[in-house]
Amino acid sequence: MVEEISQSTREQREIWLQEAHYNLFNLKSSQVFIDLLTDSGTGAMSDKQWGELMMGDESYAGSRSFEKLQKQVEKLTGFQFLLPVHQGRAAENVLFSTMIKENDIIPGNSHFDTTKGHIEFRKAHAVDCTIDEAFDIENLHPFKGNLDIQKLEKVYQSYPKKQIPFCLITITCNTSGGQPVSLENIKAVKNLSDQYGIPVIFDAARFAENAYFIKQREENYKNWSIKEICKEMFSYGIGMTMSSKKDGLVNIGGFIALNDEKIFRKASNFTIIYEGFITYGGMAGRDMAALAQGLDEATEFPYLESRISQVELLGNLLIEYGIPVQKPIGGHAVFLDALKFLPNIKREEFPAQTLALEIYKEAGIRGVEIGTILADRDPETRENRYPKLELVRLALPRRTYTDNHIRYIAAALKNVFDRSDEITKGYKITWESEILRHFTVKLEQA
C-alpha cells in the first residue's frame, strides 16, 4: 500500500512547531512530509505478512500463531522459551522486573533510552562500556558498537557478582549511531563474563542488521548465511529482549526469548501481570503470525542489502556535501553531529534538538534528538547529563521511501548546513517529566 504525504510551507511549519512546544513528538503525522523520527513500527509489510494476518489464530491460550512464532524464534536464536509482549520496552519491563533490584549495576554498550529508563526507574545503574572509537565520528572502526573488554572487566572487579545481574549487549548499538558489534567481541564479552559468573543478555531489536555487518566486515563469516550468523550470535547469551517493530518488520510487537527456565518461570508471572497470558502477552494472534513471517524475511541477505544500501545512500550524499555524520554509516539511520553542524549553539541550549527543529522548518522532515535532552538528568544530582556526542538521528523506515525521497532529504540538509553559521540561538526547557523527558518535554526559544 501507499499513503499520501502532504507538503507544507515554512510559515505553517513554524506555527505548528510553536503549538507543539518545539517537541517534534507532538507534531501530527499530517504535518510531516518525510518522517524519520524512528524506524520502529513504521515500515511496510510484505504480501506474505499480510497473508499471515488473514490466517491469525486469536485463541486466548496456545494459538497456532504463537506456535509459528515460537518455532521461528527458536530456529533463528536457539532460545526455547518465548514470552510475547506488545513492544520492546514491555520486554524490558518484564525481564528487568524479574532480574534487577535497587543499586544493581548493568554494564553494556550505550544503553538505549528506554533501557536506561527502566534500569534507573528501579534505582539501578547503567554503566556504558562502549569502545572509545564510537565517540569519534571520523574513526572508521567497523564495529563501533563493541564493548571495551577492559572497561567491562573494571566493572566486574569493582562490584560483587550479586550486584551485576547480567551484561547487556545491544545489537546494533542505536545510541552510538546504529553501529554493529562483532562476533569476536561478543565472544570476548561472553568469555570474560563467564569468568565472573555473570550472564549475557541481548537487546536485539536490530539483530539482523548486526548479522549483515558481521557477514560484510568479519572475514571468518563472509560465507555464512545471515540466519547462521544470527544463531551463532545468540549462542553466547542466555536470552534476549526484542522490539519486533524494527527487524521483525511489523508495526507492533516484541518478545523475550530465554534458555534459562528459572528466569522464564519468574518472568512469566510478570508477563501475566503487565501484558497478558504467556502465549500472547499483549499481541493479537494475527500480529504474531505476521511477526513470524517478518523474522524470516528480515534475515535474508537480499532484503538487508537493499535496506542498508538505502541508508548508506543518504549517508554518502551527506558526506559529499561535507555534512558531519557518524562514520561508518549505521544500519538503520544516519546520525548528524550537531556540535560540528551548529558550532554556535551552547550545550545548555541543546544543539541536537535545535538542529532537528531547523531541519523540520526547512523541509518538513522529522528526525529525533539523541543528545542532552534524551540523556535526561542524573537521577541523584538532577543535573543535565551531557553525552560525548550530540546527535540527530534520521531513521529510515523499512521498505517505505524511494531513493527520490532520500535525495530530497540530502538536499534539504545541505540547505540547512549552508546557513548553519546564521543559527546562533537554541532552546530552553519550560517543562519536563521526571524520566524519559524527551518524549513529552516542552521547550521555548532561548
UniProtKB/TrEMBL annotation:
Alphabetically sorted, this entry's keywords are: Lyase, Pyridoxal phosphate
Q: Which InterPro entries match?
A: ArAA_b-elim_lyase/Thr_aldolase, Beta-eliminating_lyase, PyrdxlP-dep_Trfase, PyrdxlP-dep_Trfase_major, PyrdxlP-dep_Trfase_small
Q: Which GO terms describe its biological process?
A: aromatic amino acid metabolic process
Q: What is its EC number?
A: 4.1.99.2
Domain Aromatic amino acid beta-eliminating lyase/threonine aldolase intervals: 35-411
Write down the superkingdom of origin: Bacteria
- List the Pfam families: Beta_elim_lyase
- Residues that bear N6-(pyridoxal phosphate)lysine: K246
One annotated GO molecular function is:
tyrosine phenol-lyase activity
Reported cofactor(s):
pyridoxal 5'-phosphate
Known NCBIfam families for this protein? PRK13238.1
Q: Which family does it belong to?
A: Belongs to the beta-eliminating lyase family.
In Swiss-Prot or TrEMBL terms, this protein is called Tyrosine phenol-lyase
